Amino acid sequence: MTQQDFSSIRSMADVTPELMTKFSEGTFTDLIGLKFTELTADRVAAEWVVTPQQFQPAGIVNGGVYCTVIETLASVAATAWLDGKGTVVGVNNNTDFLRAVREGKLRAEATPIHRGRSQQLWVVVITDERDRTVARGQVRLQNLANPT
């Protein structure tokens, strides 16, 4: 799927988690193995398996991986909520790293805190297989209207 294929989608309601995962092929989120599992205007969820390629030198998942997942889920969720009325760009990503991870499957879930005319604020929580919070982030996004 190309950028042009994605831009031809009229409504984010037509985008399934599988289609979003396919659209991400060849991107950094594909490189880390991120797979979308839920995609609605109110919640976006995804998961991935930890691999050594995601590690920093101490042998734990690099914080940049968490920041990427958090920014990605918040952006997809914010775009789904706008539903074709425009696009979004991240203006702030604040991520807290709470637990070191060396292996297993991680899950992330984005939910809204605020969705307004000009900006949105989403929280994303990443958990491990035992439902322990590994990282938590907030992303503020600017809503950009489609050109007329």
From TrEMBL:
InterPro entries tied to this protein: HotDog_dom_sf (IPR029069), PAAI_dom (IPR003736), Thioestr_dom (IPR006683)
MF-aspect GO terms: 1,4-dihydroxy-2-naphthoyl-CoA thioesterase activity
GO cellular component: cytosol
Gene3D superfamilies found in the cross-reference section: Hotdog Thioesterase
Positions of the Thioesterase domain: 59-135
Keywords: Hydrolase
Pfam (any one): 4HBT
Similarity-based family: Belongs to the thioesterase PaaI family.
Record-linked NCBIfam families: unchar_dom_1 (TIGR00369)
PANTHER family: 1,4-DIHYDROXY-2-NAPHTHOYL-COA THIOESTERASE 1
Protein name: PaaI family thioesterase
